[in-house]
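seq as requested:
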Amino acid sequence: MEDAQQAMMEMQEVQQNLQQVVQQSQETENELNGVRKALSELEENDEGQVYRAVGDLMVARDRDSLREDLEEKKEDLEVRLKSLERKEEKLRDKLQETQQKITQGMQG
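struct tokens:
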């Protein structure tokens, strides 16, 4: 009985961690999509002044400098997203393993 309770607590903890990782993945994906859109706009519209939001201000920026910043941010976000996806996969495996323990505990 105590093992079953321990497994249930472990399962709840894994579920909470999984929810957090999924949320972080979604937020990272949204941010990455925004960066990709900004880069696409820079490529499509290669004329005129570009600006970057700094707090409540919009500050004029050099187009190439802004592109480099966005490319770097894109790479960082892609690495973060891959890391979160690996973490999510491990947590899903752990959740399945814990659920099997509970099922086996109920049967045995």
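Residues 18-107 form a domain with the Helix Hairpins fold (CATH 1.10.287.370).
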